[in-house]
Amino acid sequence: MNKLVLxxxxxxxxxxxxxxxxxxxxxxxxxxxxxxxxxxxxxPGYTGDPFESFPEVIAVSIPGDVPEEYEEEILSGTHFTVxxxxxxxxxxxxxxxxxxxxxxxxxxxxxxxxxxxxxRVGAFPARDDAVDYAQVLVNMGFTDAWVTTREP
Length: 152
Hints:
- 30% of the residues lie in helices and 19% in strands.
- The protein is an alpha+beta fold.
- It has a domain at 78-150: Sporulation related repeat (Alpha-Beta Plaits, 2-Layer Sandwich), CATH 3.30.70.
- The longest helix has 16 residues, at 2-17.
């Protein structure tokens, strides 16, 4: 099939290339720029200011690592979270939670259950979001991170 297409297409291309056509540039257009075109300049013949209707810029604010604000309904109801540690002492859990919260933009919780202080990260309404973020925490070094639910 490919050979048949090539056998038909090659003669057509050769015949079309052999035509006696010449292209002459149109020199009647006096607005054409001479020399190299400046891609950052105005088009030839343009005299307006494209920003004249905009206010003057006096300051620029680039947000840094701004913590996300969470809806109260997510934080107050049952939600998915990622557990990164279960410590036997509250002090250890507090130190870990403090160091983790300095590096991420999700809330960090400490829950005391069954004699352990469980450090959990995030309040995700969907399990898939928690699973995705668990991978981020694994890449940060919390290799035992796993998704669970949390009821405040």
